Amino acid sequence: MPITVREVLNALNQIAPPQWALRDDPIGLQIGSPDQSVERILVALDPDPRTAVQAHYRGCQLLITHHPLIYRPLRTIRFDDPVGQAVQTLCAHQIAHIAVHTNWDTAPGGINDALAQTVGLEEVRPFGEGACVSQFKLVVFVPTAYLDPVLDAMADAGAGVIGLYRRCAFYHPGTGTYEPMEGANPFQGAVGQREHAEEMRLEVLVPADRLETVIAEMKRVHPYEEVAYDVYPLHTPQVYPLGRVGRLPRAMLASELRDYLAEKLGNPYVRVYGKPNAIIRTLAVVGGSGGDYLAQAKAALADALLTGEVRHHHTLEAWARDIVLFEGGHAETEMPGVYALAERLRPLLEPYGVEILTQGGHS
Ligand SMILES: [Zn+2]
């Protein structure tokens, strides 16, 4: 029995939750329906017309790309325009399209972790700006025996994530009291009698966009007819840094590191801006267009920043901030993460008979 686009979206939400995307990044299902069945998926960097044709010729029902196809609302779908052409090919062959963009940059094992691994960084840690998710504190009163099932259900729905830790919660025992009225069907106690129940006060953090789902899941598993719970807005949003910084296997001169990066990325045209004789031990990485992360890389104590492509003002900023800047190529810095995405999806989808292909080169 083939699975549907909906199940693929659920798998992607596990490994790159949508709340980890930067604001206004149009991620998720861009073309197609969640009910379409999927037997073969093409994972690629760009949803350009050639990749759309490739998805068709290789018999795929779904194209997953890092870059979104539709950034701004389309005014027209013209077949002589590259975006219109890709939309036409995908729609004509009923191929669905999903974008996994800055949420995959940020995710553990995503674009920037894969890039850090490709260039051989050690002791890798997140740095810099990223998604800023407003949060709520959800407090629910649970009979002691139901603590774990209720917490599991809430955690599976996206509650209780702090950095790289999941299922984070706090609980404390206490006594709940109530008096069931006529018509009530209490889990514990009887109509007209005061009840004292041993309960846990269970507290979890919930990102704003998961609140409804988490409450629904909590109520589904909680045994009470009427669940007592409180929702508090918090003034502390959770930040998911997008970049990565780590130590090179050995200190290198900037000029030497340029050759090293060219070899690791498979791009002989890696450019270096800044002092060629600077000694670099700590390297920050941001795949794609990460020139705006120079100041944050410096603040994270990096000697240099590697990104995909930079603008002229970034090269001047690098000199001014006394940090070396490497331009490694947009595709070259992101392809390791595209292959990593396919690898992460395989164990989740192959058991359902789904075949996952990757694009054949990006040139
Ligand atoms: Zn990119």
In short:
The protein has 363 residues and is of the alpha/beta class. It is 31% helix and 30% strand.
Helices and strands, with pairings:
Layout: E1 3-4, H1 5-15, E2 28-31, E3 37-38, E4 40-44, H2 49-57, E5 62-65, H3 82-92, E6 96-99, H4 102-106, H5 111-118, E7 122-133, E8 135-143, H6 147-156, E9 170-178, E10 195-207, H7 211-221, E11 229-233, E12 238-253, H8 254-265, E13 271-273, E14 279-286, H9 294-299, E15 304-307, H10 312-321, E16 324-327, H11 330-349, E17 355-358
Parallel strand pairs: 4-5, 4-17, 5-6, 14-15, 15-16
Antiparallel strand pairs: 1-3, 2-6, 7-12, 8-10, 8-11, 9-10, 12-14, 13-16
Helix pairs in contact: 1-11, 2-3, 5-11, 6-7
Bound molecules: zinc ion.
Describe the fold and architecture.
The chain is α/β, with parallel strands linked by helices and 363 residues long. It has 3 domains: 3-101 and 335-358, Udp-n-acetylmuramoylalanyl-d-glutamate--2,6- Diaminopimelate Ligase, Chain: A, domain 1 (3-Layer(aba) Sandwich), CATH 3.40.1390; 108-128 and 242-328, Udp-n-acetylmuramoylalanyl-d-glutamate--2,6- Diaminopimelate Ligase, Chain: A, domain 1, CATH 3.40.1390; 135-236, Alpha-Beta Plaits, CATH 3.30.70.120. It contains 11 helices and 17 strands. The protein has helices at residues 5-15, 49-57, 82-92, 102-106, 111-118, 147-156, 211-221, 254-265, 294-299, 312-321, 330-349, and strands at residues 3-4, 28-31, 37-38, 40-44, 62-65, 96-99, 122-133, 135-143, 170-178, 195-207, 229-233, 238-253, 271-273, 279-286, 304-307, 324-327, 355-358. The chain has a 6-stranded mixed beta sheet. Strands 2-6-5-4-17 form a 5-stranded mixed beta sheet, sandwiched between helices. Helix 2 runs parallel beside helix 3 (82-92) and helix 5 (111-118) crosses helix 11 (330-349). The mean pLDDT is 95. Bound molecules: zinc ion (ZN).
